[in-house]
Amino acid sequence: MNKPKMATEKGNSRIVMLLGQLERMNGEAMVRDVETARQVTTKILHLIQTQGKNNSRDVQTTLNILYILSELLSVGEGRRIGVFVSKGGTGILFQIQITASKELPPSEELMLQLHSLLAKVGPKDRKFGVKARLSGALNVTVNLIKQNLQNVKLLLPCLQVLRVYAANLVNAISLGKNGVVELMFKIIAPYSKKNTSLVALDALGALLKSKTNARRAVDGGHVPALLALYLDWHRNDTRHRHMVIRRGLLVCLRNITNIKLGRKAFIEADGMRILYNTSTECLPVRTLDPLVNTSSLIMRKCFPKNRLPVSTIKSTFHYQLPHVPPVGPVAQLYSQPPGVDDVVDESDDNEETEAESDTENEEDEKDHRTLNDDIETDLNKLHPVKSPGRPFEELRAYERFFLELSEDFQVSVFYMVLIHVTTPGSQESCNSVKGQHTQPPPSAATRTPAAPLASLELDSIHLTKDQDNKEEAHIPTPDGHTTFATRHIQSPLLLGDIATRRVGGGGSDCGSEGAEDEGGEGAVLEVPDTALLLPLHDPDLYVEMVKGTHSVPQYAEVAYPDYFGHVAPTFKEPLVERVYGVQRSKIFQDIERLIHPNDILDKVVYDLDIPSCPVIEDGGESLKFNSQFESGNLRKAVQVRKYEYDLVLNSDINSNHYHQWFYFEVSGMRVGTNYRFNIINCEKSNSQFNYGMQVLMYSVQEAIIGRPRWVRTGTDICYYKNHFARSSIAAGGQKGKSYFTLTFSTTFSHKDDVCYFAYHYPYTYSTLKMHLAKLEALRTPQIYLRQDVLCETLGGNTCPLLTITAMPESNSNDHICQFRNRPLIFLSARVHPGETNASWVMKGTLEFLMGTSPLAASLREAYIFKIVPMLNPDGVVNGNHRCSLSGEDLNRQWQNPNPELHPTIYHTKSLLQYLAHIQRAPLVFCDYHGHSRKKNVFMYGCSVKETVWQSNISATSSDLLEDLGYRTLPKILSQIAPAFSMGSCSFVVERSKEATARVVVWREIGVQRSYTMESTLCGCDQGKYKGLHIGTRELEEMGAQFCVALLRLKRLTGLRNHQHLLDLESDIIGTQSKVASPTTYVMEEDEPSFLEAIDYSAESDNEDAEPENEHGNDVHENPDHLDQLSDSDTNHRD
Ligand SMILES: [Zn+2]
Prior knowledge:
Blueprint: H1 10-27, H2 34-54, H3 59-73, H4 79-86, H5 89-102, H6 108-121, H7 128-135, H8 137-147, H9 152-166, H10 169-177, H11 180-187, H12 197-207, H13 211-219, H14 222-236, H15 243-256, H16 260-268, H17 271-282, H18 289-302, H19 329-335, H20 362-373, H21 379-382, H22 392-395, H23 432-438, H24 442-446, E1 486-488, E2 493-494, H25 515-518, E3 524-526, H26 539-547, E4 557-558, H27 560-564, H28 582-595, E5 603-607, E6 624-626, E7 634-641, E8 644-649, E9 663-667, E10 674-682, E11 695-699, H29 700-704, E12 710-713, E13 715-726, E14 737-747, E15 754-758, H30 765-776, E16 783-792, E17 798-806, H31 813-820, E18 824-829, H32 836-849, H33 854-862, E19 864-868, H34 873-877, H35 903-917, E20 924-931, E21 937-940, H36 944-951, H37 965-976, H38 997-1003, E22 1009-1016, H39 1032-1053, H40 1058-1069, H41 1119-1132
The structure holds zinc ion.
Zinc ion binds at residues 832, 835, 929, 1086.
């Protein structure tokens, strides 16, 4: 029967001939000859076609050919199937199938062979589903299944084909209408009958991706049935030989629970408990991980969405803007009617939104789409066009910030220290700052900065009683040795003479009062003298600075870490290895909240929204929280279990989102107890906390015994999507979004300690002011340092502007001329408050520039530095993550900054416009940032060429005339700075970035070397610091290396011969002058799309956004789209 029967027709002799060829092909090395295969296949197909027409009743001949095909397609690693498909083989098979189905009864053997072949070809044919539907093959297969439920031999290949059909969504809907869902439920069986379940389950799983089918399954009462089946298999399959079947059952449940009705049925059928218990039993067996992961996914999906435990997501603090911008997020916020519940959406019942819920990949997909969309393709915008900007008459006012360009040094005492405080226009209100800069700050006066300090005697710090609650300002001991101010250790540290927010507000009810009430009882701590290690730090000066800092909540407390200072530890802090299954176990603990509700305390222990008494006294049962100090931003703390706390961060002011940065204080801890902290309203879809990053902790007890420092800490760290619903109001109109949880655990090692946790090393505005004041002390007669006030912020803080260069060698004309003609370097930092690392890099730059090294001296002689070290003081002061008080991202305002709403950007841009007008545009512009999702330090620049290369737009060669100078500085940095990675740099101009400093300064001011420098918040994966966390020492080093790189740049650009310069630059660039590899292409300059795969095995539910509605026929058939669906589905089977 299996031998081809020789008939009379010519065609049969051709088959013999083909067979001969086939035999040779199968037997010899020619197997790999695709060309031959192609020929043979073509001939066979032709044969089948003519066979079909002329001799349709010759079933045997058809069968013979199918046998040959089957044999032919079984080898060749799928390439032959590819050829077969490309020649239209699938369609011919369907034709034969339809023809054969008309025979009554159809030949079983023919159907068996056909379906076996189809099952083989189907997964390789992207249009299989469409072809099947159009040829009418769906019903043939379905009828065969219905008629052969007991005939396993035929049933199996039919189910396999059905599985491929069902992967196409339109097919799935149509099959569902024909009762195939019910049919599959008949086939899948309990453990006692393990037969065809597996393939039927696969088919069913695919069918249930259609929401209509899922609804059908729910209506048919199949959710409890599936759960019962799962439990049955779980109990009986003790040796885990049928894990795929168990997983198949879970996949069905997973797809059904994509609809709200399904989740409801799941909960009602006690699904949470069943899956929780079975998973717990599966946990010890590593091979059962897929079951645990899918179960956990289903449970998370069905976990009832909670609302954040706050009454509004708008920031606790409000700042009235002088005027509200007409459009944008702030306008939206202000136009929101009072009383609207912005924490959750009014109605969660909208099935339409379900398609989007829980799609973990959604954002990445979107990023992927934008990846190419976002590249600037308008050539006009790619050519730097110097914008006229403001009229020169207006810009002339900025002349005062460039005294060095007109200074003649004839009148003034040559070596006299130059200090100017100037403000643009009429903003004389800032002159209070004058005091800070023109004379030493009061407290600093008591300590001579240059006084020789004896070696540190941190060991000698001791606790004493202090009856007088006033700060003892600095008591020098007779021998001039260690000098300490004494202070209570208590929480919080209050500024005695500043009105506090709580004054008059019933503050005396609070458990933790000011110093007055506890005077004489608490132990008194002595401030570690870190002057030698931290030359720019001075606790007393810090307190003075805080007094001049304006915060919206009017903070009256000082956080100890900012007061004591941070001495970078000398030991290495490696990135942590992620513990296997940590996310899963954390999620299970979250699910237990639902399973065992009685274990949950839900006790609010801190609440910023209740102004009178945010700290709860309860006799030591709970931790105490606080973050009412500069840069703090904890809004609420809820004790959920004895040693576990849910924490809610405050939104940026005048905003209802941007939660990521955190800085808060904890006290009342038990020594040695493991505490779990969950920050439950994070917003980014992934975080370096999943890739080795730890949080930072500062212990006051450690500080007073001589180790004042932030250390990386935390175990069981992970970052995952949680069950707290995010309102569409805060999610840009998108419904069904969730927040993310950052969870970490830690133990405390000191009794009566006060500890602080932060996202990254804090660097407050007051710290900056202190550092700037101390920089003055580093001045030598050779250094020209001027500190101006650029402007005042909305919140009443001043924005400092620094000028650093070398004094002219003499007041001779030549020297004065050289002095004035030095190229300018323009630097800025900290436009984003949450990126504190940028400030530490800036500190490194400033200290280096003020240093005594020959390099620093040469650098000062080479350039004039203009530096705005903190572009967003208000955001920093108020604990914002991203915005200024205007509720906007200031780094999206450079195109059209508003002088009232964005004064720091407006005036910084004006400085640059002024320079452009007088033909002194800076040689380099660089804005320092921090990066939360990538490792290392790297730069973004602007290049026409590289943008054109990335975007496929056609450009003439003259459009691409561009020298490679923009690559020189990053290239030098990659050679000298260990944390810097050239591979992560990108020089593409993106549309979404057209209002950032980098792009605007490049395009409008005409600065070719205009950069954003991004420093990781996490650590490095290359170079000397590979595998280590980044610390303040490395960040400061980066800032210093940036200066060194500028000096090298000077040597290259200092050459007059321009062509020579280009050669040299090309030289230093080496062979790197190719386009950046696509993997380094970045999305958002601050937050490029996340390119590492997210290890969310428990979350990749791989939902396709279905183009589905009730009427399958109405679905617009876009073959490409459908093919993608079927493709992705067949591929994700695992
Ligand atoms: Zn940034």
